[in-house]
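Structure ticket #2291
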Amino acid sequence: MSEYKKLTEQDLAEVAKIVPRERILWADEINEEYSHDELTATPSYPDLVVRATSAEEISGVLKYANKEHIAVTPRGAGTGLVGASVAVEHGIMIDTTLMNHFLELDEENLTLTLEPGVLLMEIYQYVEPKGLFYPPDPGEKTATIGGNISTNAGGMRAVKYGVTRDFVRGLEIVLADGTIMEVGGKVVKNSSGYDLKDMIIGSEGTLAFVTKAILKLLPLPQKAVSLLVPFPTLAQAIRTVPLIVKSKATPTAIEFMEREVIMDAENFLGQSFPDNQADAYLLLKFDGSNAEDIAKDYDAVAQLCLEQGAIDVLIADTDERADAIWKTRGSFLQAISGSTTMMDEVDVVVPRNKVNEFVEYVHALQDEMHVRIKSFGHAGDGNLHVYILRDDLDEEAWEKVLNDTMEKMYAKARTMDGKVSGEHGIGFAKKPYLKEDLDPAAVEIMRGIKKAFDPNNILNPRKVCFD
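Resolution: structure written out below.
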């Protein structure tokens, strides 16, 4: 039996004193979409959903939940892949999608202050016409910035620019007891005590509730060129990546893909990829202030690729050509999902020089486990996305092959000094693998941090490494 309170009509009446009843969903009013995220198969409904519009409302709800020992789950767009926004312990779900306002664009300090429900694609649309740039580029552009902060989302531009954490200057948060506080700020440097801001980023809603963020911006690059480089084998493609990284060129992105995933994307989109004859490809992007500067970089990298056995180098130097290629790359998850009945993902990250070894291991695992597996990923930072496909397996066979295959993959990653997740987080789906990966002393430290932030364990319970 759950240790958390099961909500009653009386709890509904109390929450309705904090948030207007028309922004509360109760019982049969709760849409099925609130029971899962993008990939989680097992549904779990909250008892009540609050569609919050302010930090003050969230503070009031958390204060009540903390007093009554009610589990609280934060929810953005629900595009996650590990169950972090699923109400495993039911209780109250706080939906932040109505908190979707831009609050301040400070062009002197190059910061953007906004609420957590703003979508990633809306940030780009807001700042780029003003000549400004928010570099993090996770694949799901309909994700909220609050969700990106919650998982420390990465994306394809991490090679040059870094991940979400590198572009968050400050946060407004609500603690489990309802306390509203600010961590970080507009300052560029800060050595003033423990960095609570960075502790919140990537904590998947288990430590505090993010209600406002101050993001760092950069001047918008004026020119970008993409290279699509076909190779005879994946091994030749991947072994070229460390040479590119060591060169004086600084690509914005270095992606790898295989022909079979490209074919899935072609079927999904109903359009042809510029080249689909090779077994493996590198997709690179370069950006900068002018064409002359980046031409030196991509010319040198193109030559290097050819020296390493590339079949050709296709240059996409117009928006139209580049968009067609990157649209295909952006559709891989949906394309793979559409080719099977169900799937689950492994989001491991390994040292860059181990990517090929891991992918070759995955290829061999298909034959060993008698299951289809598709993969692609960020060759420039060693983050792989590997999908295990159910196809026509029955429930019992699927659960066994999925668990056994994942166990083997995570064990292999550990032998390579890899980590469980590069950018999608742990949620509840990957908890067992994280515990195998972490030193027990590290787990205890994390649990101590959780206890300090959330003594009654009401914030997103059963997630990450917390029971």
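Closing remark: The radius of gyration is 23 Å.
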